[in-house]
Amino acid sequence: MAKTKYNTVDEYLAKQPVSTREVLETVRKAIRKAVPLADEVISYQIPAFKVDGRAVVYFAGWKEHFSLYPVTAPVLAKFKTELARYEVSKGTVRFPLSEPVPVKLIERISRVLAETDATRRRAAPTRARRANASLPRRSTTDRIGRRPATSSRGKRRRAMRFKVSLQKSAEGFAVSVPGLPGCWSQGETETEALSNIRDAISEYLAARDELLRGADVREVEVLA
Questions:
Q1: Biggest distance spanned by C-alpha atoms of the chain
Q2: Picking from 31-45, 69-83, 94-108, 189-203, which range would have the lowest pLDDT averaged per residue?
Q3: Which of 67, 192, 210, 217 has CA atoms 20 to 30 A from the CA of 122?
Q4: How far apart are CA 57 and CA 113, in angstroms?
Q5: What is the Cα–Cα distance from 189 to 40, expressed in whole angstroms?
């Protein structure tokens, strides 16, 4: 991941070599065409497109290729044949800079990512109600009788641990959270990647809580 601090997509592109910049502008236009209502932002120091506050697709330029993220299960299933000729690793597809940009494929992938995210948003409250039907509500005291810590604003706070998968890649290190589908990040170093995934998890959980706002949510305990 670049060490330069970028605030906008234009700033990110301006720092790329001219030949790479031209390719990335083409990628940018393809994604924009697929998700015209998305907001362009910089997230984890690479360009991203957000819909209703949630990033649905990212892209980045590297020395010999550009990458599109995230390559989710629906994307892999739908575009298995088209992606076969490209290098695909966990959460990422790499397109060589030396080849023409597959504009139509990028448009279609971006559209599927946006549609999948929208479907997940609509379904989340319904799934919560069905899964939690007829289950007793938990008290505000946890299993061992201690009340959770609260912030100065009275909001509940708790430390949480997540297992993450770290994979060395051409860009540095890619990291994902198996328990949180679509939650991933990257970094030039292992330390940077782990720092970035913490931010990604926080953002993911905040978005999840927003999706569940107003739903009849319960909790169940499972012995692992």
A1: 61
A2: 189-203
A3: 67
A4: 7
A5: 26
Paired sense of beta strands 65-69 and 92-96, if any: antiparallel
Determine contact, residues 42/48, Cβ cutoff 8 Å: yes
* Residue-wise pLDDT tens digits, 10-37: 999 999 999 999 999 999 999 999 999 9
| 192 contacts 172 by C-beta, under 8 angstroms | yes
Mention every residue, 6+ apart, whose C-beta is less than 8 A from residue 197: 164, 175, 176, 177, 183, 184, 185
Q: Set out the domains of the chain in order of their start, with CATH numbers.
A: 9-119 (3.90.1150.200)
Q: How many Cα neighbours within 13 Å face the side chain of 200?
A: 26
